[in-house]
Amino acid sequence: MSLNFIRNRHSWFIRGILILIAVAFIIGIGYNLSDFGAITEVPNRTAAKVNGEDVSLVNFYLMRDSLKTQFGQGGEIPEEYLNQINIIALNQLVNLKLLAQKAKSLGFKVTDEELDDAIKSDPNFQIDGKFVGAERYKQFIEQALKQDVGEFENSYRERLLAEKLAGFLDETALITEENLLDVYKRQNEEINLYYIKFSGNDYADSYTPSEDEIKLYYQKHKGELKTAEMRQIRYFTLSPETFEKNIRVSEDEINSYYNAYPEEFKSPDGKQIPLAEAKKDIESKLEAQKAEGLRQQFMSRLDNPEGDGTGIDAIAKEFSIVTISESKPFSASDNTSDIPPMITRQAFGIDKGRVSIIPVGANIWVVEVKEIVPPRERTFEEAKKEAAESLKREKSLQMARKAAEASIKKLKGVKNENLPAQAKKLGLDLKETGFFSRSEKAPQIDSQMVSAEALELDPKAGVPTRIYDDGDKFYIISVKEVKIASPENFTAVKDDLMEQELQKQRSQVIQKMIQDLRRQAEIVPNSELFPSQG
């Protein structure tokens, strides 16, 4: 039985919006967690406090695992994204808490009868369309979710409150057919651009810095040419098998499971499978459940990583680990070692001698920082090669930009239809992107600004005077052709487009509401949930 709190259209709407908003917040806050406000101590069983109300740590872990399943889509999630998922999970729970608080303040209520009906009609608590019964429901909440029923139902009630608020906002969404036609035209018109590219790489061989120029560059950029800080760690990993090897399942436990879940042991023709035939499968399932319980119990040390001062050697002894590995010294940007990026990041966020417990995929890494080598200024001879390459790159980019600026002056006032002939006359390599829409990236061009602004260009105005760049390339662009959206197709897509625009409008309303609520709220996350970001 899987856990899924969301049951109807408003539920899916609110859930999708919360995830999108949570992702938007992480894009804004990165790893600094600054959007949460001051990070101070909160109770160990609490992921955060929102206006004085607790966000359950258990709910945080459930939300995190649910997001990992959604984003992973059956595959392995890259380690560098796992901490972002943690932040999205906490943001989602904070947003949900704020919406529930807002719903209460507006007078919305969820009665005990409504809560009872919602739970009993939830497919996750039904077998063959019928509620599983109070005892099995209670057993699932307490054993599978590691929550007491009261705590779970309080969380469920908050989600129902958010659904009611979403339903109310749903009724306020409105879009006219005229607005819809404008949206259709904007979404479906396409453009083909002329473009001329100037790349720093094209000028790399046009300049060779002298010894004096390199020395001058070195003197000006000593701080940027320091050696990287290096760290060395001691570590070992705990696989799922580590937690399974000492687990024993009793006959009574096997019998209890078989009797509690008879529907799991039916043959294709509906007959009950004898206990003797099912015993092996039950034993394996219970071993896996117990192993996961031990794993979660061990992971709970994340709630208080300082613990009782237990060092890595004591933890290794606890799990009968004979060998603790030692890494070679590595930098924060080192991608050549066998250390996963998440471990590297964590190692640069903790103090020397500190032990950290980090899940990476199915394994758990136990890590201690053994040595920290601080950065130092390099001598000229040590930094000479890097300084020369940096100076050469800087000069080649300057040359590329100057060439683009000189060319755009010569093209000033040239109409689009005359651009091919004028570009050929000037010896410029004029190319076409091919048609693309507003929702698509401009083919052949790396600049996001070109993609964003292309369809806002006036086709009659000639070559724009602006140079677009993406850091190491510069572009002159002009409109070759605009393809207008066909009105004949509007009727066929109108209903889907209407729902899409209504969804967007609801999303914007809720997003603005959450942003306003967050600005006024006191949000205090658990400081131990995320590694220090330095």
Topology:
Elements: H1 9-29, E1 46-50, E2 53-56, H2 57-72, H3 79-105, H4 112-120, E3 126-127, E4 130-131, H5 134-144, H6 149-172, H7 177-188, E5 190-199, H8 211-220, E6 230-238, H9 240-244, H10 251-260, H11 275-299, H12 312-318, E7 325-326, H13 341-347, E8 355-360, E9 363-373, H14 380-410, H15 419-425, E10 431-432, E11 436-437, H16 448-453, E12 468-469, E13 473-483, H17 490-520, E14 523-525
Antiparallel strand pairs: 1-2, 1-14, 3-4, 5-10, 5-11, 5-13, 6-7, 6-9, 8-9, 12-13
Helix pairs in contact: 1-3, 1-6, 1-17, 2-3, 3-6, 3-17, 6-17, 7-17, 8-14, 10-11
Distance between the termini: 41 Å
Mean pLDDT: 83
**Tally of separate domains:** 3
The number of E-state strands comes to: 14
The rounded Rg comes to 30 Å
Main beta sheet? 5 strands, antiparallel
CATH hierarchy, class of the largest domain:
Mainly Alpha
- Give the overall form: extended
Structural class: alpha+beta
* CATH fold assignment of the largest domain: Triger factor/SurA peptide-binding fold
Total count of helical runs of at least 4 residues: 17
Helical percentage = 40-55%
Portion in beta strands: 5-15%
